[in-house]
Amino acid sequence: MTVETDTKPCATSCCGQSVVFDGASPAYRRILMAVIAINVAAFIAVAFGSLAQGSAALAANALDFLADSATYAISLWVIGRSARTRAGAALLKGASLAVVAAAVLSFAIWRAMTGAPPQGNVITGLGVLGFLANLLAALLLVRFRDGDANVRSVWLCTRNDLIESLAVVVAGGLVWLTGSRWPDLITGVFLAGVFLQSAYVIVRQSQAELRAAA
Known about the structure:
Elements: H1 26-53, H2 56-78, H3 83-113, H4 120-141, H5 149-178, H6 182-213
Helix pairs in contact: 1-2, 1-4, 2-3, 2-5, 2-6, 3-5, 3-6, 4-5, 5-6
């Protein structure tokens, strides 16, 4: 079967064996560069809002945008390298997601003990901004959601962003309605759990690929 160089490679080889997409596609590289730019811009906007509002949900959102920017950059760098290198990069990204989860959880606990509730309308506004950025990234990446651990980690991070931005919007609305900081804090804890689940999936797949490469 002939494979075009600017589209996602086929799922089977000429011998009928399963072939896992490794990202070696000009189209995939272009999309990753566009998604990196989207995430950097969103990180700057949401980070300022998080610092101004002291919001756990926005802090989670900003950290995830930053982590995703680094994740996509690493994913772009390892395309075309050995399976062991790609799996090792994915393992590193899974570990970094676990670190982000711990940081968000710690911030949420700290906010539970100190501080006044943030402004719900600001959280919701920035959540909508984040959602639109994440939706654009997801639409660009959706046809590349399956592949090796490196490719898979990119999609899981993008999926997390969509979940996260929707959760931030809901948290902002509840903070505005109730005047309480608890919806924001609960959202931060929920998002930490989402990050941990994705870290687990990425680490398991990358470890299996490292064993296969060895």
